[in-house]
Amino acid sequence: MVFVDEYPKTSKLIRSQFIVSFVALALGALFGIVQALHRTGTLRIISSADYYTILTGHGVLLALVFTTFFIAGLFAWAVSNSLERELPQRVSWSAFWLMLFGTVLAAVAIIGGLIGAPSILGHDLKADVLFTFYAPMKAHPAFYVGAALIIVGSWLAGYAYFKSLWNWRSENPDERIPLKTFMVVTTMLMWYISTIGVAVEVVALLIPWSLGLISSVDPLLTRTLFWYFGHPVVYFWLMPAYLVWYTILPKLAGGRLFSDPLARVVFVLFLLLSTPVGFHHQYVDPGIPEGFKFIAMTNTMFLLLPSLLTAFTVVASLEHGARQNGGKGYFSWLRNLPWGEPAFAGCALAGLMFAAGGFSGMINAGMNINYLIHNTLWVPGHFHLTVGTAFALTAMAISYWLVPQITGKKLQRRSLAVVQPYVWFIGMALMSNAMHRAGLAGIPRRTAEPMYSEFSFEGVAGTVGEMRLQIAIGGTLLFVGAALFLVVMAETWLAHRGGRLQVNSVFPDPLSGPEHSPRILDNYKLWTAIALVLIVIAYGPPLAAMLADGIAVPGSPPIPV
Amino acid sequence: MQVHNFEKVWLGAAILLIVGFIATISYGTVGAGISMVDDSGGQISAEAVQNGNTGTAFDDPGVVQESEDNVVVYVVAQQFQFRPGSGDTPIRVPVDTRVTFKVTSADVVHGFAVTETNINTMVIPGQVAEVTAVFDETGTYGLVCHEYCGAAHHTMGGSVEVVPQDQYEPQEVSN
User: Fold this and answer.
1) N or C: which end of chain B has fewer CB within 10 A?
2) Element (DSSP H or E) covering residue A58
3) Which residue of B has its CA nearest to A282?
4) Separation CA A105–CA A153 (nearest Å)
5) Is A384 part of the annotated catalytic residue set?
């Protein structure tokens, strides 16, 4: 039985979430190629001042809208599929509309910047503040209200998962929580804890400040609150990708998950360690004592552990699958994986690139090594491997498997779907390696013109011209990759129902099942409490120091000068 | 809980790797003396920086010889220039001398990075960023604002000229 026939209401919800997500992907990808070509001097259709509006749109649409809506859809499927029930409808739809309304508000504010920032409600309609929207760069209040609504909407969406779990629990008091639901709930707990920072920043400080109700805010405080959320948010993107890699990928490889208990341990570690790490984005901020940076660094390094464990479990599961398919030898089993299957190939390539992204992330996290690459092009080189590939490519790949099940329609244009992950992989390999090297040469990120009149950059390995060319070609391939995906999705969506779907939602049991995992892993109260204690240790003293001299001291001056 | 032997080995290796990273970085701090940008620069009123009435060297920023072996460079970053640093006032410092940069902002958050060096800090209104370096080669180094600071952010650059000690003289910049 197909998911859409079994859970028609939840399927409709997921379809709506996916449509918004894919529209955001289309716009975000368009903004992305405009930037890649502008910055490299290949093709310039916007002014350099508008570059930052385009960059804000790219960041917000892809990192916030595409991700949050896709995750809401994926989680709705995961909970519904593993607890075998429809999601509560009213709360889920309220969450959807709230998030959509927030998205529209934020998008209107951003696009206002491209049409000359007309004055709306007494404020210039623009939001060229980038995805990292801390003071004192100021956006139209609609942008902040929109961002707040997206986050509140995601909280509400999470409530539907908890409600499903409670209902399931009352009917199955002695059973272990199914792995997919366990992962969703752990991720949402992490999300609730980590979004407190940005919620306080936006609701208590930025909205009143942008409306002119308070005259100034403390820039360091808003930065700190933003980064309190700004790193955990990457785990909010990564954990859903892990959910796919742990629960669906082994099956696509023709095998079974290696260890269910270890998967649970990994997610609990993320819940505990994700939030108290934000100071590693502030290693070079003045006003924060070195000791707090050191605590965050230690914590960040230990956050490598769940990812290293994942590497083991996922690769072991894939190897098991390959050997079921006749794979032999130490490495030649790799040939027995279904590389021509778009859902599998996309997830596996995403995982491979994430390994490279993980290593450049260790450099970012290395407190004093960070001096070399802080705010250089290395950083977008890094997160295009993590968010832009580990998450985005996994999301696209698993859509090839999931969308037929929530629409009841066979995947169309299969040949395009087969090449799409490889196009993305090659495009990202070119763009990202050039960005990493350009970062080592000191070329800054977030700039429309990385050329200065006073001096020029010298390449570390290869020339600056060659890096620029690779970024332009890579960016173009990524745009083509996104377009291929959207064509496949659009045609599948518009196709008629019927025929064999070639995919199903039946999961084989793990090699080592949940019965081997200690019951304490299901004790969410305990883990949440420990997570909060770690946060108080990492953030309590510095935040207390920042607040001690007054919430707006030292304040932001009037701008422009 | 059942943990496979291979998993145990992997877990051990992973923890060893992490502890190794932390040890390397700690060595960099304690052994090699790479200290972090921290709160040693203190706070300042950004509005006073803007109005030039802080009562500190930031009112007339420039290079100051504070003691025989320590040169202090006061820099104000603002949309879209470094004072000194940008345009026809490059920062001029002597080679093989301890140079302390004290940087603050008159408006929004900026970045302050000197190419080919470890000098890299955020410039946050209300805070003074303090970094110390010794240049062991003469020449011109690029100065970049690497934090988006407004529509003309990409024009905010400058240079640091490291000159032989006998050619160096302190400079001040007037608004």
Assistant:
1) C
2) helix A51-59
3) B122
4) 14
5) yes
Per-residue pLDDT tens digits for B45-81: 999 999 999 999 999 999 998 888 889 999 999 999 9
Mind telling me how many Å the CA of A256 is from chain B's nearest CA?
Answer: 16
A520 to chain B: which residues are within 8 Å by CB? none
Place of tokens 């009149």: A453
Q: Do A557 and B154 touch (CB under 8 A)?
A: no
Phi-psi map region of A335: left, alpha, beta (phi>0 left; psi -120 to 50 alpha): alpha
Buried b (16+ CB within 10 A) or exposed e, A168-191: beeeeeeebbbbbbbbbbbbbbbb
Put simply, whether the predicted model's pTM sits higher than 0.80 gets the answer yes
Give the DSSP H or E segment for B161. Answer: strand B157-163
Q: How far apart are the first and last CA of chain B?
A: 70
B172 touches chain A (CB under 8 A): no
Contact B127 A287 (CB under 8 A): yes
DSSP 8-class letter at B37: P
Mean per-residue pLDDT for A189-217? 95
Catalytic residue among A384, A436, A437, A468: A384
Is residue B174's pLDDT more than 60? no
**Backbone phi and psi for residue B135, each to the nearest 5 degrees, phi listed first:** -85, 125
Question: Which chain B residues contact residue A367 at CB under 8 A?
Answer: 25, 28-29, 36
